[in-house]
Amino acid sequence: METLEKDLFTALRERRSIYGISKESPISDQSIQEIIEETVKHTPSAFNNQTTRVVLLLGEQHNKLWDFTTEILKADIPSEQFSSTQEKMNGFRNGYGTVLFFEDQSIIDSFMKQYPSYQEHFPIWSQQTNGMHQLVIWMALEAEGLGVNLQHYNPLIDERVKAEWKLPESWKLIAQMPFGKPSASAGEKKFNPVQERIKVFK
């Protein structure tokens, strides 16, 4: 895998929710796949249980996701209120691809049985490791010049996603991450004082 264009903290500072994305990519499909493979291989998880699953949708598969998501939402939202949702859907479909994030519930369940004293923690730890995967992939794609945002249309689209790509029933959909070459910049980001959010004791 080639070295990323930016260092860690530059990528973290510049990571933003970019909603203006196009059907172009500054890097190859192979490079996108390698970013995901490296992330899934090396991102930590509780007890090293490796519960996160990732699906990469490109081309017509990406289009298909946002087409049927639009259909599902259209059936659930009054027509007079749907125009803003349609605009969002068009924006996501205009992207180059989408990363789908899942957690394998069968592994979580097995660890809950294996370690009953930690039982209630495994679902929480599962969400935490999924969030780490999301951030690493987000930063890596951003570092390569892609615009990225994160969406949560689950559980409305869960069953259709599983059926469309024949995914295991135990995979629980957590988030959708559309991406593409930026066609618009993000707005100004405001920060609360860091001093109010961190305590240091020596």
Automatic annotation (TrEMBL):
It comes from the Bacteria. Residues 12-181 form the Nitroreductase domain. InterPro entries: Frm2/Hbn1, Nitroreductase, Nitroreductase-like. Pfam families: Nitroreductase. PANTHER family: FATTY ACID REPRESSION MUTANT PROTEIN 2-RELATED (PTHR43035). This is Nitroreductase. It comes from Paenibacillus phytorum. The lineage of its organism: Bacteria, Bacillati, Bacillota, Bacilli, Bacillales.
